[in-house]
Amino acid sequence: MHDMEIWNYFIEEDVTPQRNRQIKSLHNYYVRHKKQILDQLVPLFDRFCQNVQLQQQEGHLQKCACIHVSLLRTSLNEGRPVYMLEASGRDTESNVQLTPFRYDAGWIYGFADAWDQACEEKRKHYMNRIQRHSFEAWKTEQLYPFHVYMVHAVRYAMDTIRQLVSFQSIEKDSHFEVRVGEYRDHEVSESVYRVNERQRTSITCKGWLENRSDQEYIYEHMAKVDLSRGHYEGIDLNYARFEEVTLTGSHFGGSRMLGTRFERCVCDQADFRESLLVDADFRDCDLTYARFDRVLGDRDMVVEAHGLVFGLNGVQFQRANLTHASFRDAKIAGDFTGSKLEETDFTGADLTGSRMLERDAFRVTLTKEQRETITWVEEPQHE
């Protein structure tokens, strides 16, 4: 075989399977330990936000437009996988300074090191036809499937971080967000939390969404608008956040809602049929008579070609009103604990990985097979 054929064979037969094996192990580790990881991140953010307040009081930082959680690539190359917290204003994006607020992400990059070691053992079998430095150069651009677990961790932690007094006390720009990426490379960073104080009017926002433009709505924040009876079929709302929005009777059929959040929204009679709802969040929403027929909201969906796993949390319906809602033929791992399930229709639904309260076991019409795929949990005791 020619050198390029050998290289391609090495990547396809050795490197990619080894990567996917380590990603699955990392995924399982994160799912088991995400609450402990949360407990590490929150105090760090608390100290950092107190420092940002001090910087603002002393006049060193104006309104904060962005908090960056940045991988320090130099430190990673030296065997110290750390992320740094930094804050910037709208006009000081390029002037961010190194800060002492660091997070050790050894739990992520230990799996990347294990991948590297496994690949090195495989590389030796090729009798110097594949050079170590060539693989090293290639590998540095292939760390995203590992790095994305820092994105997941900070996104998960934001529910708690945004409640911190120190976080709330930061003077923020009208467009504020928290991003996770690499130091000095903000183009590849991802938004994990966004607040837009300059909201569109209901009419303008509805028209904007009904255009259904590509890539236009990802990560967007929409709050306190009435978008009722809109036609949003096929829209891409991945990681968008709706806050106290009225969506009564709106049509979202065939839409993409990976990680989309609906916070205290009114979604009665909304139509989500055949949409992708992986990791979508409907906690505390009114979903009376909503249609979720044939939606896909599975857990642990592996895309081996890219080394990515989707569906870390399942679809969250805690405390939602699902009275008369329909999940016919849906494939969904939903957390229905504390939700109202009167006359909810689960005919033909695959509920593998779902959770419900034991009190609802005989309030909900389910087949024997469906009941066996659900985790039944006791109602939490309130002191």
UniProtKB/TrEMBL annotation:
Keywords, alphabetical: Repeat
Keyword Repeat carried by entry: yes
Superkingdom assignment: Bacteria
InterPro entries linked: 5peptide_repeat
Repeat recorded as keyword: yes
Gene3D superfamilies: E3 ubiquitin-protein ligase SopA (2.160.20.80)
Pfam families from the UniProt entry: Pentapeptide, Pentapeptide_4
Protein name: Pentapeptide repeat-containing protein
Species assigned in the record: Paenibacillus durus ATCC 35681
Lineage, highest ranks first: Bacteria, Bacillati, Bacillota, Bacilli, Bacillales
